[in-house]
Amino acid sequence: MKPLMRAAVLSAAFILTFTFMQAQTSAYPAGETEQIAVIHTPFGNITVKLYNETPQHRDNFIKLVKTQIFDGTLFHRVIKNFMIQGGDPQSKNAQPGQMLGSGDLGYTVPAEFVPGLIHKKGALSAARMGDNVNPTKASSASQFYLVQGRVYTPEEIAMLRQRGVKISPESEAVYTTVGGTPFLDGEYTVFGEVIEGLEIIDRIATQATDRNDRPLEDIPMTVTLK
Fold first, then answer.
1. In which element (H, E) is residue 161 found?
2. In sequence order, what are the residues at sequence separation of 6 or more whose Cβ sits closer than 8 angstroms to the Cβ of residue 163?
3. Which residues contact 51 (CB under 8 A, 6 or more apart)?
4. Which residues contact 158 (CB under 8 A, 6 or more apart)?
5. How remote is the C-alpha of 132 from its chain's centroid?
């Protein structure tokens, strides 16, 4: 499976990375109301809620929104029936045709895999480096993706299980109705979901792209908290 962050051009300094060290106590205990964020795009707004079950990813995302790290970045990687990815700091003011996807903030966020938080359509997940340089599956500090995916048949789910993909009966019910990308479960941290604007993901996912999956027309974003 192709890593969601491009590894080839990263420096050794980044590969070694710093570990994300947020406060150990959470300001949003599980069970309390989730923080809501809005991703503003030229195609409309995508409203997401951040899961309290993944506190390190949630708190990191909130910090980046408050410091306006995302503002002016692009959805730099778009693949129809898969996902739309953004959050690369190097995408701000990027030149046309420039390869993107290797930028970050110099630290990673430890993986937070939670049973039941799956890659259904609209899932908000963290990109990361590949297993060869990142065996703990730690997440990128800033790059994230929103799942478009597709609806799977029961036969396709059975084939994925035969290949070692763990899919619970509850998850199968979602993937055969709502859709998503089940083969990413347990590989990338899911830390939120879209609650308004799924159709915006569909619109962005249909945009023409170059050979590196970058949209030919830039799709910038700003992100705010509600």
1. helix 154-162
2. none
3. 34, 57, 58, 114, 117, 190, 191, 192, 193
4. none
5. 20
Residue 41: pLDDT over 90: yes
- At residue 28, does pLDDT exceed 60? no
pLDDT digits (tens, 9 = 90+) for 157-210: 999 999 999 999 999 999 999 999 999 999 999 999 999 999 999 999 999 999
Q: Taking 70 as the threshold, does the pLDDT of residue 20 lie above it? A: no
Output the CA angle 40-23-36, nearest 5 degrees. Answer: 25
The three-state secondary structure class of 180 is strand
Give SS3 for 87.
Answer: coil
Length of the chain: 226
Across 94-131, b (16+ Cβ under 10 Å) vs e yields beeeeebbbbbbebbbebbeeeebbbbbbbbbbbbbee
Whether pTM exceeds 0.90: no
Rounded to whole angstroms, the Cα distance separating 118 from 96 reads 34
In the sheet that holds 139-140, the strands lie side by side as 18-19, 107-109, 139-140
What is the pLDDT of the chain when averaged over all its residues? 90
Write the CA distances from 206 to 80, 202, 215, integer angstroms.
Answer: 6, 7, 9
User: What's the angle, vertex CA 139, arms to CA 136 and CA 143, rounded to 5?
Assistant: 155
Strands 190-196 and 44-50: antiparallel
